[in-house]
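quick one before i forget lol
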Amino acid sequence: MSNIFQGRNLLIATKHEKEKVITPIFEKEIGVKCFVSPAIDTDEFGTFTGEVDRKDDPLTTVRNKCLMAMKITACDMAIASEGSFGPHPSILFMPADDEFIIFIDHKNKLEIIERVLSTDTNFNGKEIRTEKELVDFAKSIKFPSHGLILKKSKVENAELIKGIRDWNLLITSFHVLLNKYGQVYVMTDMRAMFNPTRMEVIEKVATKLVKKIQSQCPECSTPGFGITAVIRGLPCSLCGLKTRSTLSFQYTCTQCAYTKEDQFPHGKTEEDPMYCDFCNP
């Protein structure tokens, strides 16, 4: 499998130093030569602070990042990621980092996608009026190892100050804005190079992606043979009715459409009644 990638150049479409975690994984596992290009500005697809709104959904955005970068550099193989931050879709009051990553190989007509939804994030923001509030907030989000952003308000980007990782700069900048506006909005800087926690999630999704690339279709040997559907319905051990728990994973090849179903992927054939909507409504 590695012969189709061995020794080829892999463009990492980023301006936020994601290559620091992606390069070691891909160079070791599939034998590519990773590089970045200073000509690529992924901020044109949206910024976390809102100076540029993201117009498309995350998957479309990450695909467009990759394609734009490939066109600029004339490279036929590239990788890009896109993160979204906000409330977890199923865990109440828990912030989440939703990371998409895409690998495109024009030469072999491959597009392989992975995703990690993680609660490992310091994503937060707060309107503050005192230095004590600022210091308490900064400590709570792991400052100064994790960067901060200051601005006039949550919805206004007046005098936006990004990438703060120094106590003196943080406090001085805070008082400058406070004296002008009477309040300051402080928020976590979610760009990868200013957020080690997010960088760890990017490393996880990159590792997941490379494993999917290494997974070949049993029929045609095309890379990227991965899970395309999760089938619910693991039976309850008490009443025998179907639960919402996973019964099987379905794998589908994007090239030849070969399909395989892997039953009981979590190693159990029945579910505990506590997870049954009938036994424990």
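fyi Residues 236 and 271 are 5 Å apart (CA to CA).
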